[in-house]
Design goal:
heterodimer, A: 272 residues, B: 173 residues, mainly alpha
Chain lengths: 272, 173
Amino acid sequence: MASAHVREELSAYVDGELPPDRAMEVADHLTTCTGCASDYEAMLTTVRTVRDGMVQHRAPDVLRARIRASLREEQPGTVRRHAPVPSRAWRIPWSAVAAALLLVVASSGITMVATSRRASDSSVAEEVLASHIRSLMPEHLTDVRSSDQHNVKPWFNGRLDFSPTVPRLEEQGFPLLGGRVDYVHGRPVAVVVYGRRQHVINVFSWPASRDGAASSAPRTRNGYNLERWRQGAAEYWAVSDLNAPELRTFVALLRQADAPPAAPAVPSRYAP
Amino acid sequence: MPESTLESFERTVMPLLDDAYTLARHLVRDEHDAQDVVQEVYLRAWRHYASFRGGDARPWLLTIVRNCCYTWRRSARRDTVEYVDDQHGGEYGAQRAADTGALEESDRSELQRALDQLAPEFRETLVLREIQDLSYKEIARVTGAPIGTVMSRLARARRHLQQALGIGARETS
């Protein structure tokens, strides 16, 4: 067999892609022709070098988040029906959100699994924060979009085994944006969403278990502020990138609105 | 409970994101452009997911990546002819100036520089073979080229890299 032909086929020979009869001829030739044998060695070295050296890129998490968000927007036959969005100003830049998501995932390693009966306060905080960040993805913020408490509150009926409180705080500068049901701490929870300028405040609530402190000190994680408290028989968490003093004010207003002096502090639906 | 389309897509196509991104990075090179292209790829894949009839999703997705990359190249640089194709003898050096301008020379390894000198047809064949580990048959399907062309592109791309990297018969015993 001519050496020129063999040299042409060494690349496919290395890949094991020659037909068996051709491969045998090449193998035979290599045992007798030193020139082709050294070409073969060089080809092997080249293939190995290229294989080891070619960069296998890792897709950035931002891209992953972007793709997921756009797929959901494209989803055919979407079941969600939205009231008109209050304002386009509430559209969240996904890139910032995805970057924040990346940061949170990278820096703290969110544990989504609440296995123990008494998940620690801290792991609930992580879940609540993760849910908050997830909610900022396009179309994730609210299942029911409305600035009217009389739309939002009934929406939860039948979706949860309790009824969250949905006070109006618009006059105090915290317009109601809507609500959604999320899954935190091993159970479905109510999330009522408020706004403050460009900031989103997610208020989570669910019936409290017996143990646990009445409230916790405000905390900051990855640039988000979290507040936790108990009112009546419900456990509340508020999360936002709003500054801590304003979030404090918001929580105070919410608690005040939630518990008017004349009414009993415990909403009846929370009662066991 | 039956799996929703989105769940099925999430399970079969989303895990291939690194592969898709890698091919895109090797073909369009700029990382931001590559991200835009891959997002478009996934949208297309999603829209046409109904036409994916099971089997190995990787060649299917990589075909879309490849097509999107070429569409992107055509629209981005319609007026420059940079590459010599198979039929024109493959004088690699000629494309180098046009191809490397946007990249920092110092950032790239010797191998990367040699890869950048290759026309995209050769580069994509190499990526599909050396990184994605596809068979010649699968590469032919992804690139739409006959198997014989896949074979000769790989042989020529490797010969070029061999020379560029200074791997020669004389240096091996």
